[in-house]
Queue: 2 jobs
Job 1
Amino acid sequence: MGDTFLGYRRENGTVGVRNLIAVIPSVFCAAKVAERISQNVPGTVHFSHPVGCSQVGDDLDVTARTLIGVGRNPNFAGVVVVGLGCERFTPQELYDGIAPTGKMLEKVVIQDAGDSIKAIEIGTRMARQMQQAASLQRREEVPVGELMIGLNCGGSDTTSGLVANPALGIASDKLVGQGGSSILSELTELLGTEHILTRRAADAQVADDIMRVITAMEEHLKHQIQTSRKSRWKNLISTGNYDGGLSSVVEKSLGSMKKSGNAKFVEVFAYGDAPSKKGLVLLDGPGQDGEVTTGAAAAGAQIVCFPTGRGTPTGFPGVPVIKITGNPRTFERMKENIDINAGEVILGKKSLQEMGEEIYQEILAVASGKLSKAEVLGHDEQFCIARMP
Amino acid sequence: MIEEEFAQLAGGKNALVLDAKDNVAVALADLVAGDSCLVTEDGGRKYEVVVKEDIAFGHKFALADLAKDQGVFKYGEEIGRMKEPLAKGGWIHVHNMYCDKGMK
């Protein structure tokens, strides 16, 4: 009998670790209305963003798929779509993208409602009704294989690659070993290690895909570096990295990669999409914290695990972010923000294996309803859709 | 309280080996040349190594004598190669290690 957690089984068979109502604007013009609707109904979350119009091609496509993906995330029992009425990514397209999940779903369009005050009223009634209906659902015991976690590190220091990421990798391997899924991303932090990543590919197709996305990211960065006017902004590896003891980009990238343990990669998937297979997967996306977490949430991740050596307080609306620091001084200072003190390995109190087990147990606890510190304090800064190219 | 623990730790002079294939350890405290350092392997095996140079927290030292162009292994993977030979207990960083892979 494998490990289990207490989650909310959804209409389409997926499992949420939270039971919230999401208020999602299809365009930035509807962001304040969405925020006000959410404020009127405590317990709901909203997703303000600066995009959804005056975009074309891949860029608009990624925005659209990401917003739909967030709406589909099983942590949300219902979604209120808020539109303006003349945007390029229409509220109906957002609605239609979420509808196949079978979850509670409504749409309010400001230009149809008459004005923003009327739209707020209509949306508030929708969210109120959904919230009450969702409150009737109970958690049930489900296999840990239903979990998908996102991996992202930010505010890194020497201890991140040394203990926090390797310990998280042990937890990730344990989850994947029981049929769960884990998403590695931050391609900018993986450059120089493609020969190692491809060795960890489950098959030749995945190896080809890994080479393709890493090469494309490297070409993209080279172009950006050529056009940068400040020489200080042309290095991938910073002075601080060298001072901290990192001697090559490969060493830095390996420290980042260690978050994903030693499991094989079964799939590479595009930003805004969800993986089609269970197991360890690679999300083709950039390295900014918010963009990584947003890509993971849009892929269906119910929880994000976030090592941070220097310490960051950020969270994501409706998706618990578990903060892990490998730096015992950072934990001492920021214990109101950081959930796990992997610095105990630095102090010699715990082994990496014991720390990995502790992180795994925290993932199960948070999946079953324990609030992460970022959730308790209302941190929701990480919602940020990646722009293309 | 945490600073006392660090002071004790510095007295303990610890270092960590992240993978069985590795030929470097990472200092978990600021080490001074001549210090006898307690190295803990991932599997739990412990042994002492005398460091030949000052090794700052987070920096690496050799667990065996290394030849010129020999691979430096951390996380079980090659992170670079030696520009010059280095004796066991010596500091490894950009001054004596090179790596051609990846953007700089």
Job 2
Amino acid sequence: MDMSFKEKSTWISLASTLGIFGYYFISLFGFSDLPEEQVNEAIAGLLLRSIILIVILEIVFHTLLSATNHKAAEMGEDERDKLIALKANNYGYTVLAVGVVICIVRLIGTEMGPEVFESSLSAEIPMLTAHLLMFSFILSEVVRFTSQIVYYRRGY
Amino acid sequence: MARLPIVNKVRELRFFADEMTQQQLADLVGVTRQTVMAIEKGKYSPSLEVAFKISWVFEKPLEEVFRYSPEQEVQD
């Protein structure tokens, strides 16, 4: 497949995000067996581990990519790369904004009608707002990288 | 897939410029080879700056390299 440096870099970011945060969300389900007092600590540890892992993976793979594509790495982005990034950022931002609005509505709802919200998922899933925000962030990144790749494959 | 209303002769001009490669043109203009490829296939309309640079490389006026052709435009 004929890919530009930026497209390869986007594939790396998409694969790292899907891999690490797939692991993050799958691991969350494993915490249901833990005693309640250990769950929050385990979740915080997992989140920190996932963030460190994704940073390390991105650095390692992007260093390897730059080392093997020295000239392209030095050139940086051209005008098509910038336009594609701008368009993809719009899609990612929309997804993130929807996620944030959902979290705000949930927080307001918890304040105004705790009996409705506390009896539902919030009571069963610890740190639900943090998970929702995290999920929105990951989804927005996946949408951003995927739309970038679609634009690259189409030409623009 | 949208087809852009701007058609060009970049491929033809490369051929007549000692069969200049896409990479050579890309280096002269300051874009990636993939961008040159997208321009040639009519999938991407370059900025005015890049269009002028391409014309300058082939020593042709802009309108000889790029032409506006609204009948070409096809939407998704």
